[in-house]
Amino acid sequence: MATPEANLHATIFSAIIPAPFGFMGVRTELNQLTELVYLPPRFQEKAPNDAVSEQTARQIERYFSDPTFQFNLPLKPYGSAFQQKVWQAIARIPCGEVRTYGQIAKHIQSAPRAVGQACGANWFPLIIPCHRVTAAGGLGGFAHHDDETGFHLGVKLFLLRLEGVAEYNRSSQQQVPMW
To answer: Domains along the chain?
Structure first.
């Protein structure tokens, strides 16, 4: 059941789409997707209120049924030149594979911490699959969240498992609470 706080925050979204871990919040403006947000189960579904949020909802549903699905949505341009460079490198990581922050940094001639900051600033998770970027020694962080409840790291782990990344399969020793 949605909490009063969740209902208040729901007004900023053009749609709230069910996801296996909770929901995806969709924000649109002027016929462009402006943001995707991972939302916990305390939210409730909200029907798309425009063509772009409807298109986004359909594509998110396709991704969850087939993680190899390629998104094709009108994205609002964001980010610095450096962030764009990181996001382009992340977008080239194939489904079912991961790269470390260090590998991305070496590829674009930067530092791992800077890559991590750019990952966290990603406005379009799933589309720019920052969940495919991990730490050298394990899962790493996700989406600039503290994860005291484990929600965001749980989402990252779920997405890696959905995409079939072997080292994060269900029998993995990696224990992250899902919610």
So the answer is: 4-65 (no CATH), 81-168 (1.10.10.10)
Catalytic residue positions, numbered: 130
Map the chain to HEC letters.
Answer: CCCHHHHHHHCCCCEEEEECCEEEEEEEECCEEEEEEEECCCCCCECCCCHHHHHHHHHHHHHHHCCCCCCCCCECCCCCHHHHHHHHHHHCCCCCCCEEHHHHHHHHCCCHHHHHHHHHCCCCCCCCCHHHEEECCECCCCCCCCCCCCHHHHHHHHHHHHCCCHHHCCCCCCCCCCC
pTM of the entire predicted model: 0.86
pLDDT per residue as tens, the chain (179 positions): 556 555 556 789 999 999 999 999 999 999 999 999 999 999 999 999 999 999 999 999 999 999 999 999 999 999 999 999 999 999 999 999 999 999 999 999 999 999 999 999 999 999 999 999 998 888 877 776 656 558 888 899 999 999 999 888 764 444 444 43
